[in-house]
Amino acid sequence: MNRKVTVLDYLEENYRSIAEKTAVSDESGEISWGELRNRSLALSEGILSRPDMEGRKIPIVIFMEKSIAHVISIYGCLYSGNFYVPVDINTPEDRLKSILSTLKDYRVLTDEKNLEHLKNIVDDKDILLIGELLSAVSEDSDFSATKKRLKLLTDFSLMYIIFTSGSTGTPKGVAVRHRSVMDYIESFMDEIGMEREDVCGNQTPFYADMSLKDLYMTLASGAELCIIPTRFFSFPLKLLQYMEEKRISYCMWVPTVYRIVAQFKALSKLRPSKLRTVCFSGETMPLSVFEYWRENYPDIDFWQLYGPSEITGSCSFYKVDNRRIYEDIIPIGKPYRNTGMILMDNEEIIPLSDTNRKGEICVYGSCLAAGYYNDDERTESSFSPLPGELGYKERMYHTGDLAYYDSEGNFVFAGRADYQIKHMGRRMEPGEIEAAAEALDDIDACCLIHNKEKDDLILYYIGGASAKDISNALRSRLPSYMLPNGYRQTETLPLLPNGKVNRKELDVIENEKGKEE
Amino acid sequence: MREELIKLLSSICPEVDFENEKALIDDAILDSHAVLSILAAISETYDVEFEADDVMPETLNDIDSICTLVQTLLDRKASSNG
Q1: Complex ipTM more than 0.95, yes or no
Q2: CATH superfamily of A420-516
Q3: Cα-based torsion angle of the residue sequence B71, B72, B73, B78 in order, rounded to the nearest 10 degrees
Q4: Cα(A361)–Cα(A340) distance, rounded to whole angstroms?
Q5: Closest residue to B37, CB basis, from A231, A266, A492
Q6: Cβ B52–A492 below 8 Å, yes or no?
């Protein structure tokens, strides 16, 4: 019986075939697939032994650092038939309260170290301690409670909820089913692939959707998930040393991290020798950063992936052509099989032949999230009926991202619909101006902010270029009304926990500045 | 230079006790963004450039190490100019 119903079936398969092989490693040690499966089952038995957990499926918040214990917590929650909610331990108190109030009925799984944080926020009776639960289960347990619960699980059961920032300030809980993650696994394995011998160097935090690749592609392939200590991402050489030591062959980081390595030219000091696959997603990859990596690794595979949390991981992929010179931007490519991805210009579907015409990316298929947890209103507004010619009673997710088709039928990212700026009476996308600037050699990263007070466009940028150079170069790429009025060279841009540029923070900085001057 | 550096770093991370903390990196008192902001400020104030091996946890772990690092960078600049 090879049929897989939930992601747990992949873990059972690894338990049967590669029990001794390393599954996950972190700074403190490693755990094999067999141990991971058994510890997770024990945790599940511990959870189900609590009288208050009988006969229900509820969200379990995982509140601990990224670690082997965190991975056990994930699979323990799943074995117990519940769904997990990974949360950043540095979440501000108000935001954490807002998340918990959205979940309504929940438990919080944590460790001794993080217990203190939760005082005054979570009721004692709602806290599960991983150490206590694991020690409560005897060595020779037959896991009968778990086995009974598993019979009630289907691929349609919720698997996790990941909270993303909402534009209104209240976080939205993207609720995702087992099926969607399994669909992502199948898509990724078909097109990009990962081998059992690979060691995947994890950067993205587990509370961000981008980490699905790391967690579940290693699960599906039997590769090793190597959790890189977060602090190394400020120290490029340290990061590269760790990669070499751990024989990391596979990286799926946000562009910001690749940029830090490029900024300090760290690969000329140490070039990790096992690396064979590099994926990037989450934001646009600056071409100068990409070129730096390609120069150092001319023969490995580079992939650009694209997709918001609501479509589970990524919905499109693009293999970078190692011989091609990219003029301005690397396309986000084409959708996976079993994923529908279209461009909508208001109510109209843009045909593939209509190249360079911008529309909103809309996605449909098994990859779609179940919706925003306990928030029908925002679910309805983002997940709408698929146009009649494409399906009957199907739903489609509006990404709010703009793109156009190139001549090869690839989607090319063209900014966010909701960052639209109205400047000198014309509507424009900061993403478009940023892409033009990032195409210049001496710009590593940038962010365009609209100074509303003065109606000025201000380009914050990292890189050696002078304002005059950029301005001259942009003149040939952009209509004059889209040219920035000011340039601010900076060594860093404020970042969100997931590594993307914190546009809001920069916006506040710039608009405060505008008032002072 | 020590006092000057403490003043500069405190302007970036006002909540951190640079005078007394001995494990700014090891105890995760400075996160990634703080580290990069500090490097940026040092680079600008002293007109120095960092290479990959200057940016290590042990060179930024406490104020004395940071002083040594800045001095090294200044010496390197002086010798390359001279």
Answers
A1: no
A2: ANL, C-terminal domain (3.30.300.30)
A3: 90
A4: 10
A5: A492
A6: no
Q: Are A1-153 and A420-516 the same fold in CATH?
A: no
Q: How far apart are CA A243 and CA A249, in angstroms?
A: 8
- Radius of gyration, alpha carbons of chain A: 23
Q: Which fold has domain A192-306?
A: Rossmann fold (3.40.50)
For residue range A214-273, list pLDDT tens digits in order: 999 999 999 999 999 988 998 999 999 999 999 999 999 988 899 899 989 999 999 999
The amino acid at residue A67 is: S
Instruction: Check residue A454 and give its pLDDT.
Output: 73
pTM above 0.90, yes or no: no
Contacts of A236 in chain B (CB under 8 A): 52, 55
Residue A366 host element (H or E): none
Please write down the long-range contacts of A88-97, taking CB distance under 8 Å and 24 or more positions apart: A88/A205, A88/A207, A88/A497, A89/A63, A89/A64, A89/A65, A89/A114, A89/A117, A90/A497, A93/A121, A95/A171, A96/A121, A97/A121
Contact A495 B57 (CB under 8 A): no
- What CATH number is attached to the domain comprising B69? 1.10.1200
**Chain-chain contact of B56 with A265 (C-beta, under 8 angstroms):** no
User: What's at A177, amino acid-wise?
Assistant: R
In total, how many domains does chain B have?
Answer: 1
Which uninterrupted H or E stretch holds A337?
none
